[in-house]
Please model this.
Amino acid sequence: MEEYNFYLNTLGNLTLLEKKNNIKAKNEFFDKKKEIYKTSEIIDVQKELCKLKKWTPKECEKRFNNIKERLIYFLFNQ
Model:
């Protein structure tokens, strides 16, 4: 439970979604959320999250690092 709480509100675990999809996905398990993600118009959600088979702390950390690298590039390399 401690590990769950640690990752719960981290950048790697949070996802931008349209309001209707966010309401549907809210507290669902990952397999159910993937079905909702497939209907999203946000390309990053479709491309990155839908290809995953499971959602674990390892995937969360990888996603955090990916987002962090992209933000740093966007902010400082334009």
User: Anything to note?
Assistant: Residues 57-76 form the longest helix (20 residues).
